Amino acid sequence: MKNIIKTVxxxxxxxxxxxxxxxxxRDGEVRYYGKIDNDLDQLxxxxxxxxxxxxxxxxxxxxxxxxxxxxxxxxxxGLDCTVIAPSKIPRQSGNRLKNDxxxxxxxxxxxxxxxxxxxxxxxxxxxxxxDLVRSRMDATRALRVAKQQLCAFLLRHDIIYSGKTKWTKxxxxxxxxxxxxxxxxxxxxxxxxxTVTGCIDRVQRxxxxxxxxxxxxxxxxxxxxxxxxxxxxxxxxATIASELGxxxxxxxxxxxxxxxxxxPSEHSSGExxxxxxxxxxxxxHVRNAxxxxxxxxxxxxxxSRVIRQRQEGLPQEIIDISWKAQCRLCRRYQYFIxxxxxxxxxxxxxxREIAGFSWAIAKELEAA
Length: 368
Known about the structure:
By secondary structure, the protein is an alpha/beta fold. It contains 13 helices and 7 strands. The chain has 3 domains: 109 residues, Nucleotidyltransferase, domain 5; 93 residues; 126 residues.
């Protein structure tokens, strides 16, 4: 008896899973199986029912807020499962009908035809480190908002700090001496100050936890090697490693740059070639981290004491790559600025090349 392959599309939501099934042949039937609760036991019942009919199952669902629990459950049971990118699903122009039934059937049909783009699913260890890194990003965002609110409150009452640098010990001592004309306003001031200090403590706690978790991670060698480059601190290196996993899974650095959305867009026709801004596709967390790292290349190339400490114990080949990167990128930064390029455009161009050198370091580390 011939083994039948069935493609199963899952439209996953918080409380429900809609199931569509496409038969093996291209013109085969695509039917709606039904809707179940978002419960792995119920999903297993459906799987047993379909397998009992002599079918080999291929599952597919969209990446979303429900994470990779279903993917890991199905793969752990030896079933083929793919998580696909929602932004790259082909959509018919003018089709304005959308519901769970249509979505799951469409997923099954398109996956059977091989027209869907899978996403990279991180390991559980990488995902845990990624959650920690993203939590720190949220904490720094909250800290920035808290500082803005405190500064805006003081400015409304014409209270201006005369020192050069804010958020130092001297600045906080000055904040403790500020007095308001009304008791209610003094309470507001104290709440804003406490919020800022609380956010600072939270960022410091998370930073220390990232440091400890990186030392225990299987990506520790990659994180340590990436820090040999200028501008890539512990946080940036941990972001790259946790978000991208194994950098050598990209065949060449150009594909890594395209994955991060750091390549220019294009709208060309015939002999007319028009380049636009970067595509901004893919992982925005790594893209933002690399753009921030690019800011460090505005100064001449130099091996500082901090960089020398980071490079201790690393292979000479990796140190040579990082020095080559620093010489090239510092020179290109100054070249772009001298040509009158916008600073943000310059940093984006440098960030694109940092991604390429990071790939080279990962490749060298794999070969070592």
